[in-house]
Design a protein that fits this description.
Two copies of one chain form a homodimer. By secondary structure, the first copy, chain A, is of the alpha+beta class. Chain A folds into two domains: 78 residues, Glutaredoxin; 113 residues, Glutathione S-transferase Yfyf (Class Pi), Chain A, domain 2, CATH 1.20.1050. The first copy, chain A, is built from nine helices and four strands; from the N terminus they run E-H-E-H-E-E-H-H-H-H-H-H-H. A four-stranded mixed beta sheet of chain A has the order 2-1-3-4. In chain A, strand 1, helix 1 and strand 2 form a beta-alpha-beta unit. In chain A, helix 1 runs parallel beside helix 3, helix 1 packs across helix 9 and helix 5 crosses helix 6. Chain A is globular. Chain A starts with a strand and ends in a 6-residue tail after the last helix.
Chain lengths: 209, 209
């Protein structure tokens, strides 16, 4: 079996979905959680000066979604057919578009307020809530199309992991995040009940985001 | 062979890389170029209300990079090994991050100026040029690592197509875009000289972006 080393900060963020994939597959990996100081020291050695970076037998793979897709394909959580894999990839890209859209709110709440969005409550009303409504609409359509309880028929995928982990961060900031969307809250809980994921969630380091 | 139908606007944008993949593979497809009016009519029928959308035997795949990756995997332009495929995916995601970063300039030039960036020359100096310098640095590192003349050892991939087509749009707006980067300009031309791509570039509809 290859040797895996995942570099990220001591948070969930863009590294957690890959950690969850290792947990789902019962595959051991080195979970390297960098301090800011250690990150600055290693930054020039990473392909794009960023984390997460996955080292596979010494070869570095950068970019969070590319890492997770690589692991998901190996471990069987990338979709069951070629078309389903493309649909899962598209779901994840749609989630990343949502993530970019909510930055004025999300980054403001995390203490990195973008210029022009100093009023975080305004960002919540004008950015987060409309983006959530649109994105949850897409998720509802996907969930209605299949009976798996996940976003595609073939079962849990890396897209479910990115999306639900991000929901954990958002519901931590906005307790009413799921209000008016019981089917999305049920989906969120359903993913977290997936046995091997549930075990990982119970034992992982506890971080706010 | 499956029947392929690609919906996009009458422009290159996020649809062109997939058209180029069909050309590289000599695979016929229906190149549906929507007017704004026709797009508004079809919008509710698309999974995320957006184009590009690829229909494969009637099944819709949304999201530009997911579509291109699906075709690239089928046609042999996604990377030659599992690790190389992940690195190609990561290059493309890094390019999308660059694309998001330069929006204040790029969208302003295309007539969709984001709030706070009405001064397009300021956006050029403060956003586009630093983002280009950073991104071109990454591309140089990738090109130096292999002898293929493409971003990975295994030859041309969908990442080369997205990146060089976007360069065509940017150099159309900023004639000095490659100044100080002869190796990147050489790479840009090298991709465009790839025989089947060259033939497509000569015959495709001519649009500014």
């Amino acid at each position: 079996m290859p040797s895996y080393k995942l570099y990220y900060f001591d948070g969930r963020g863009f590294g957690e979905a890959s950690r969850q994939l290792f947990a789902l597959a019962d595959v051991p990996f080195e979970d390297v959680r960098l301090t800011r100081e250690k990150f600055m020291e290693l930054k020039p050695t990473f392909p794009y000066g960023q984390v997460p970076v996955l080292e596979v037998d010494g070869v570095q793979i950068p970019q969070s979604v590319a890492i997770a897709r690589f692991l998901a394909k190996k471990f069987g959580f990338a979709g069951k057919t070629e078309v389903e894999q493309a649909i899962v990839d598209g779901i994840c890209d749609q989630w990343k578009d949502f993530y970019v859209e909510i930055k004025p709110y999300f980054y403001g709440k995390l203490g990195y307020c973008p210029p022009g969005w100093e009023d975080v409550e305004k960002a919540k009303t004008e950015v987060l809530i409309p983006a959530r409504d649109k994105f949850f609409g897409f998720l509802k359509n996907l969930l209605n199309k299949n009976k798996s309880g996940f976003l595609v028929e073939g079962g849990v995928t890396y897209a479910d992991l990115f999306i639900t982990d991000n929901m954990t961060s958002l519901v931590g900031l906005v307790p009413e995040y799921f209000e008016g969307y019981p089917e999305i809250e049920a989906y969120y809980k359903h993913v977290q009940e997936f046995p091997k994921l549930k075990a990982w969630l119970a034992k992982r380091p506890n971080t706010p985001s």
